């Protein structure tokens, strides 16, 4: 009977520990998801995974594509320009949601958003006098946030348990010293 109680205590502590780990992982992921600042980009430092607004003068449409896709399409379709034909808009194609808008009174002229469920990418840019897009700011969220949340949960648990153990040993040492003194 004693073995059964010990087993259930072990099982309960394991489930409680797993639940605490999952809760901390979700909380850290939410904190990192909420705190995602805009990063200033260096001029001309477009990554292939940054969204850009593309206007098609022949078709009369505006869409948001990734910068690498626009570079590839631009060679075969020179009428594609990094400017929207509409001031703002949204579009849903398959599993990808995109949005764009023109901005006034900011160092950038355009904001583009790309959300495919796994990645949320945003960019702010302007177009110079030669028609070349200049990236001003960019940010993105990807599935690696969850992994980082798990790592921070483990670090939090290690610090928490280390602090609890230190306090326990310190209290024991203090009481032992007091008992010896007198």
Description of the structure:
By secondary structure, the chain is an alpha+beta fold. It has a domain at 37-141. Helix content is 45%, strand content 29%. It is built from 3 helices and 9 strands; from the N terminus they run αβββαββββββα. The chain has helices spanning 2-34, 67-76, 144-181; strands spanning 39-40, 51-56, 61-66, 80-81, 88-93, 96-102, 110-115, 120-127, 133-141. The strands form 2 sheets. The chain has a 6-stranded antiparallel beta sheet, with no helix packed on it. Strands 3-2-4 form a 3-stranded antiparallel beta sheet, with helices on one face. α1 crosses α3. The model has no long low-confidence stretch (mean pLDDT 85). The chain crosses the membrane at residues 15-39, 145-163. Keywords: Membrane, Transmembrane, Transmembrane helix.
What does the secondary structure layout of this molecule look like, with pairings?
Layout: H1 2-34, E1 39-40, E2 51-56, E3 61-66, H2 67-76, E4 80-81, E5 88-93, E6 96-102, E7 110-115, E8 120-127, E9 133-141, H3 144-181
Antiparallel strand pairs: 1-9, 2-3, 2-4, 5-6, 6-7, 7-8, 8-9
Helix pairs in contact: 1-3
Transmembrane segments: 15-39, 145-163
Keywords: Membrane, Transmembrane, Transmembrane helix
């Amino acid at each position: 009977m004693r073995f059964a109680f010990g087993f259930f205590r072990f099982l309960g502590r394991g489930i409680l520990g797993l639940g605490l780990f999952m809760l901390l992982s979700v909380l850290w992921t939410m904190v990192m998801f909420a705190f995602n600042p805009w990063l200033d980009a260096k001029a001309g430092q477009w990554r292939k995974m940054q969204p850009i607004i593309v206007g098609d003068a022949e078709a009369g449409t505006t869409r948001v594509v990734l910068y690498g896709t626009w570079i590839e399409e631009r060679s075969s379709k020179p009428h594609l320009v990094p400017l929207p034909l509409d001031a703002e808009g949204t579009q849903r194609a398959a599993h990808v949601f995109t949005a764009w808008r023109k901005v006034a009174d900011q160092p950038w002229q355009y904001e583009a958003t790309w959300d495919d469920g796994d990645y949320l990418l945003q960019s702010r840019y302007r177009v110079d006098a030669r028609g070349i897009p200049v990236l001003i700011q960019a940010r993105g969220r990807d599935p690696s946030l969850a992994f980082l949340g798990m790592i921070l949960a483990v670090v939090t648990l290690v610090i928490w348990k280390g602090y609890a153990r230190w306090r326990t040993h310190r209290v024991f040492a203090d009481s032992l010293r007091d008992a010896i003194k007198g």
